[in-house]
Design a protein that fits this description.
Number of domains: 4
Distance between the termini: 42 Å
Low-confidence stretches: none
CATH topology of the largest domain: BirA Bifunctional Protein, domain 2
Helix content: 25-40%
CATH architecture of the largest domain: 2-Layer Sandwich
Strand order of the largest sheet: 3-10-11-21-16-15-14-12-13
Structural class: alpha+beta
Radius of gyration: 32 Å
CATH superfamily of the largest domain: Bira Bifunctional Protein, Domain 2
Largest sheet: 9 strands, mixed
Number of strands: 28
Number of helices: 17
Length: 556
Amino acid sequence: MTEPDTSRLERLSGVLKRRGILLPAFEIHGGAKGLYDFGPVGGRLRNRVNQTWINHWLSLGNIVEISCPTVTPYAVLEASGHVGEFSDFMTICNSCEEASRADTLLESYHPNPDSLTKAELQSLLDQSQPPCPACQAVDWSEITAQNLMFNTTIGAGASGRPGFLRPETAQGMFTSFPALYRHNRERLPFGAIQVGKGYRNEISPRQGMIRLREFNMAELEYFINPHVEPSHDFSPWQDSKVSLIADREGEVEMSFKEAVESNIIRHATVGYFMAKTYDFLEKVGIDTQRIRFRQHESDEMAHYATDCWDAEIHGSYGWVECVGIAHRGCYDLESHEKATGKSLRARREFSEPQIIETDGWTILGAKAGPAFRALAGAVKTAVELLPAETSFPHQLTLPSGEVVTVEEEHVKRDQRTESVTGEWYIPHVVEPAFGIDRIIWHILDHAYDEEGKDGEEYTIMHLSTHVAPVDFCVFPLFEKDGMGELAQSIHAVLCSKPNVVSMYDSSGSIGRRYARADEIGVPKCVTVDHQSLEDQTVTVRDRDSGEQHRVHIDAL
RNA sequence: GCGGAUAUGGUGUAGUGGUAACAUAGGAGGUUUCCAACCUCUUGUCGCGGGUUCGACUCCCGCUAUCCGCACCA
């Protein structure tokens, strides 16, 4: 691990601000904590990263992209567990005004205070009277819930419903499950991706881009049938060993395939997405030597997850988790099903129909109903458990203890043969969730290079061509003899191409213009010189090698 | 949220109870046959609010933001 170089970090932040990549938001009004602007260069960079991410997953072939609202009704996030999960119960010391978490204070008075409700915490606090960790006083304010979600009201006045800004994009994918299932012709596995904003009202955002109150996230929810053994082709990653920090085995270096086969990664689909994540990070320019995967410990794992890995990237702030890849089981769909009563299931057909033969008795509603009144339901259940050879009248003892006599006229014979061809099950979900801002930070951190050129500082952003915000800079060697006009027309042609960004620059010396382009990571610079006027060729200069070669204008 | 430090052109820094300097960057022009060269001219600054004072960028208070610990979060 390299020692943190704070002066490098400061110079990098300076470049990002000066060149319009990353800036504190609303600065003319004094700024706002945890909120950042992507500037005229950064905005494009963010878009390129998002687009690269989308294309990366769409290439799997069974992935669709959706976009759901950020404003989310209370009930949705209550069902998902966020209303409870994202709350902390706080109490304030009336003596020194230090805020403490109620469950932390009560740790020595209860085996698991985290599980208590607000009222239970309050009465336990009143009983046990723990001292303030800061000033030792025992004088606590009433417990209040502090939720990390931004709340709002959807609609005005009396018709307004409570809601939140979403803390993650995932819930939109779960609530859209019926439409996704239909779109995918009711066949699993399939996935849905979404790129968008998430919001968390952090108590204390820190470290620039690492913890934000509004952040860019990109999530894939991949729905699988838990009855089918997953099979994935790990051969593309056969030769690359990755650093894994496993819960039980500790730090190991091995291929994804080995990790899955030795059950360090407990689910093959989780392993496959870890490998795809590794590819994505490499594609956008993250140094693969500075990637590692860390498995969540059992007690750290979110309550729904059965295996969870973080992709961590090393940069100026040390190791930072940038991607979480979690096997969420059926938790999310089941939660929304319970809350709404709507089916969020998929159908699977058995390989052979299951034949269910029924030979017994059931009640004759028209007679048994009036006879047993309120007990009729219990009688029906009991009668259906009787063997076929039972004779009536028959004495039945109901679970409630009551004894009834069932006459022959109350029952009828029930003989059926049913063929069950399949069943409805709740799909399981594997979720890779990407913190785009954290990834962009590390792209910039890894790309930022201060090389000494003749003793002077010289800055190059070695950005991947996938994400570089500007593709070409076009320069006239001098703005005279028609070189300016020719360069302008080349610039115009490049700009008119889809997904190509070109900048025209004619001020200062040619060297200065190359330097400006290098600072924001422009991969190729096109220069029009005297020869261009004669034979319609230009020089193309490569950012990283500095090499130039001459190309015809039409070949650009 | 607590404790400590900080806040001066776009960026990086000086400095003073009498409204500010240096470097760099930016613009216009000149010069130059390809990697921050040079010349001339030029643009632009004391985080916000209140107080003390004849006068505050400077001193005091509050706020906001940034950085570092702690706590929180994943």
